[in-house]
Specification:
The protein is elongated. The chain contains 25 helices and 12 strands. A hairpin with a 6-residue loop joins strand 2 and strand 3. By secondary structure, the protein is an alpha/beta fold.
Length: 785
Amino acid sequence: MDFSPSDTKSEKLKDTPSPEKVSHAGALMTLGDRHARAVDAGPRPDILSLTPRPIDLLYALRRRWKWALGLGVLCALLAVAIAWLVIPVNYTATAWLRIATAKPRIIFNTQEDNDLLGHRNAQATLMTSKFVLNAALRKPGVSQLPDIREERDPVSWLQQNVKVSYPGNSEILQIAMTGENPGQLVKLVNAIKDAYMEEVVAVERESHLRRKRVLEQSYQRNIEQIKKKSYLVRELANQIGTSDSEAARVKEIHELDSLAGLRDRVNRLRGEISGKTQRISLMKARLDKFKEQKEGDGTAEEESPEVLDEELMVDRLVESTLAQEPWIAQAKSQVTAIEAAVFEERLRAARPDLPSVVRMEERLTALVEEILRREEQMRPRIREHIKEQLAAGVDLASPGAAQGPRRETIEDIDVDKSVLEKELEVALEAFNTSAKEAEKQGAYSAELESKRTELERLNKMTGKMGVELQQWEIELAAAPRVTLLEGASVPRSNDIEKKYQKVSFIGLAAFALAVFGVTTVDFLSRRVNSPSEVAYGLGVKVMGDVPLISGRAGRHRRTLTGSTPTPREGMLAESIDNIRTALLHRAATESIRSVMVTSSLEKEGKTTVASQLSASLARSGRRTLLIDGDLRRPTAHRLFELPVGPGLSELLRGEAELEEVLRPTRVAGLWMIPSGKCDSDAVQALAKNAIADEFKQIRSEFDFIVIDSGPVLTDADALLFSQYSDAVILSVLRDVSRVPRVFEACERLRAVDAKLLGAVVNGMSMGRYYRSYYRPYTIRVESST
């Protein structure tokens, strides 16, 4: 048989990798090394750690619906049987109370609206409180009930089983207990109801009566205080001389006005005396200076009178100008007003250190200091200006100054000062007398006003208390806030319908839980659901998909014949032809001659893809060789009804020549090398590149070489065969292949620098294809590996 390629289809050969490039250590790398290189290849895809989506659970249910249905029915039946035995038929005993939202009134609205009974949540809490339940347990015969005797902590048991509520959000309070013994329930509910009425309702009413008694006592005390304070007010009014506080106030204002006039007169006299004193001191100082100058030289005797007259006139003009300066005049008026206000405030206030008095004194001090500072600043300038005017011949004196100023002597000024001092003594005596009278009048008036105010406040408060007492006397006859509508009686109905509902719900829940558990367990295996998970989830290009031809039952077989294909087989061939087209396009652009078809684990359709792809390449006119590289589990020879050996294993061991293992198939243009009988020697020879020369010869004789290798994750054969391949196609079987394993297989292939063309997804549903597009020349295929 001639295996040389035709001249029209021959092309430039691509050399097989040399033994130096395919080392034994690299081919037989350990699992840890391969995993480390895979991790370095890139980030881990998100699809490997995604939480389950509803669509993922639906995919899992599609794969495991039989298991889910069977286990769900079994769990549902078991749960229903257990629930029926465990859930009892219960009775409910109920007592009804009416708790008014607001306290019933006859006419008045007293201060009982904000009491404890007005809060609904508080009533429910009080009904199940320990002191109410303990009071209920103390009722005759309650502590001897069977359920109470069996409990270590009866109070806690009652808190868990007593239900208190307001049906329909109304004023009706419901006390209910549910159990198997109706007679016992009635006794417990009535005991709790009676304890509540005694421990809460009766105590609340007693609390109101106690408040009323306290109010009555306070009212009597206030009456006595009013009598005493009224007597004090009358006595104080008699001392002042008037019983009218407003008249006392007018009298006090009149006294203060008189006192202000006396104070102004005292201040004026003090100012005039101070001015006389300053003039006497100034004249004495100038006279002493004149005498010194006279003793020193004789000219001073003639010049000193004129100098003294001129200086005295300048001083008077300076003081007159300062007194007429607008700001200083206004400031002095403010000083007088503030002094009067301070004096009046001190008379009215009981304490001299009140904040208002302190603030006015601080303001007064600051204003006096500012007046003195301004006078010191202005005096030199005014003096200089007056001297300039006098030197220029301007007459600054009074109209009578033309005849010469009148000369005052120290004796004249001293006489005037003595007269002013006498007037000051008289004015001070009158001022002090008036101040004492005003102070006494003000103190009595303030005390009288305070007493009257306190008496009015006490009268108002006592009047309010009296009105409140009268209203309470009337409202005590009103209906009670809490009334008993109906006590608990022996119930005649049970909750058998609720038991049916609970049992049904438990059964459905058990069924749903079982189905969910089966789908969740299947999801955790992360099987491939669609080509999009491979393409977008793992980032591996999908070259095409292959329809599901038959189910997986034991070891499957396929035969390749030339008979007319069925529709399913036509769809298979059509999808394989699409993959072949994509492969030929990549081969033309990237010089691909040999392709290895592999999978992550066994039984994922790699043999189907390899055999169908090699047949499709042969039908397209390419001389194609199919090598069964799955040495440990060979199946490709059965598809073509060829013997398993001699084959590749014998070629590796040197027991056969290339011409002996090359076998033609029934498909024109397609040859095959079976796997042969594998052993450890064959595997070691593969790792040592024992067929490097033979593979170079094969590449020169065929247009395409398709290698059906073993799974990537089970042994190192696939990684060794990848060194003889220009590219790798990964077979993925939907609903069988696992996403993490597919990712790991891709990473191991990348770790040995294998070019991964893409993936082929097997087992797609027939609804994805249209039968009108299959071709009649397609071969027939029956099973997959």
